[in-house]
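Quiz preparation item.
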């Protein structure tokens, strides 16, 4: 579907044309029309499916229709909540790109920098405000933001927001908004917590689900190493000796592990940077810049910090652990093999993670190639553990009696 068929403002179409956007993605085609009509929505889609434009374009369209007297105060009319600084910045840039020819102000506020900087942002009276929950509440307590005129609320990456423990902050922000408004909730996965949030704020929502691109990506070669947990770092350092791994994004489960792993990689003279929630904004932006410019060969990240980061030409994604949510794995490996490039996803699986790996293979409907020839392999242990689980599931009558090695005396 072409953007012209959506009857968007010619100035928005001009900006899209400059960006080379000609046809809509699946979520854009399904969502934009409903949002333009004022419907509430819950959308399930990953980063990379075009969901930011799916809500940004209709919001810009609706706001552009409203006329304000010259010199009149401009309140915040659209509020977008995002879980991380990087995602908030990216969403703000998208609004500015698509609305560059419109007379609308976009403001972005997030933690990790001095509040004075964002107080100046609010003084510019943004029509559209993109914010992380904590910083928005901080500005509210300082009486620097007025949410009384918000017409549209977007909660982006709702699953990660709730994973970060932001539920109370989100609830407090909702209490400060007008009761009559349009609500749009987007999430890569829809766990029970997200479903409860949706039911509490959405009014007869349209539900849209877009399958992850990662499910059908022949350009991504997937491999798994069976390895004991204590041996994973040693195996990683062995793998990184291969010069074919030119640009490597590594996922860890915790911030502490990210820092420890980054230190170990640098000690073998491979430049690496870590990015997670405990890093301040300048550290995170510097790490991203070095990685994008190929000055750092490796970027170590947690899932939450990496959500919303869009980096091209990542040659390899390495999972130091198997995520217990299969969709998270799909989201991770989707960071490589972009824009027609080939990519490789390597994962390290301990015996305790074997069931999570099976869930991923079931979701993808394909087996992941096992690397058997490596110095830390533990395949025999996995087989023994799986066999033991199988034996435990048998009823007592089904279990074979142990062989007798002679008569008892």
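Solution:
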């Amino acid at each position: 579907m072409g953007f012209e068929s959506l009857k968007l403002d010619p100035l928005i179409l001009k900006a899209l044309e400059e960006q080379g956007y000609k046809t809509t993605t699946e979520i854009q085609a399904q969502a934009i029309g409903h949002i333009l009509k004022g419907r509430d929505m819950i959308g399930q889609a990953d980063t990379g499916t075009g969901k930011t434009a799916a809500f940004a374009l209709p919001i810009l369209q609706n706001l552009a229709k409203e006329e304000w007297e010259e010199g009149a105060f401009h309140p915040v009319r659209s509020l977008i909540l995002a879980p991380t600084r990087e995602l908030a910045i990216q969403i703000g840039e998208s609004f500015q790109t698509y609305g560059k020819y419109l007379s609308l102000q976009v403001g972005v506020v997030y933690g990790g920098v001095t509040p004075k900087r964002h107080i100046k942002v609010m003084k510019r009276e943004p029509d559209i405000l993109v914010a992380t929950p904590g910083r928005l509440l901080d500005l509210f307590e300082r009486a620097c933001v007025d949410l009384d005129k918000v017409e549209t609320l977007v909660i982006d990456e709702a699953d990660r927001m709730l994973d970060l423990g932001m539920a109370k902050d989100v609830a407090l922000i909702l209490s400060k908004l007008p009761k009559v408004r349009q609500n749009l909730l987007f999430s890569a996965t829809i766990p029970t917590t997200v479903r409860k949030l949706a039911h509490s704020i959405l009014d007869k929502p349209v539900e849209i689900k877009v399958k992850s691109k990662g499910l059908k990506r022949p350009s991504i070669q997937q491999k798994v190493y069976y390895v004991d947990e204590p041996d994973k770092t040693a195996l990683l350092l062995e793998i990184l000796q291969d010069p074919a791994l030119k640009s490597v994004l590594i996922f860890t489960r915790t911030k502490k592990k990210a820092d420890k792993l980054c230190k170990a990689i640098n000690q073998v003279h491979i430049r690496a940077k870590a990015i997670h929630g405990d890093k301040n904004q300048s550290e995170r932006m510097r790490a991203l810049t070095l990685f994008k410019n190929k000055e750092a060969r490796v970027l170590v990240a947690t899932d939450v910090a990496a959500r919303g980061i869009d980096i091209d030409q990542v040659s390899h994604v390495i999972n130091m652990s198997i995520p217990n949510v299969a969709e998270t794995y799909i989201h991770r490996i989707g960071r490589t093999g972009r824009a027609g490039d080939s990519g490789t996803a390597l994962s390290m699986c301990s015996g305790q993670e074997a069931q999570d790996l099976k869930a991923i293979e079931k979701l993808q409907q394909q087996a992941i190639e096992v690397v058997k020839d490596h110095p830390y392999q533990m395949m025999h242990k996995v087989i023994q553990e799986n066999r033991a689980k199988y034996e435990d599931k048998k009823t007592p009558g089904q279990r074979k009696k142990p062989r007798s090695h002679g008569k008892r005396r």
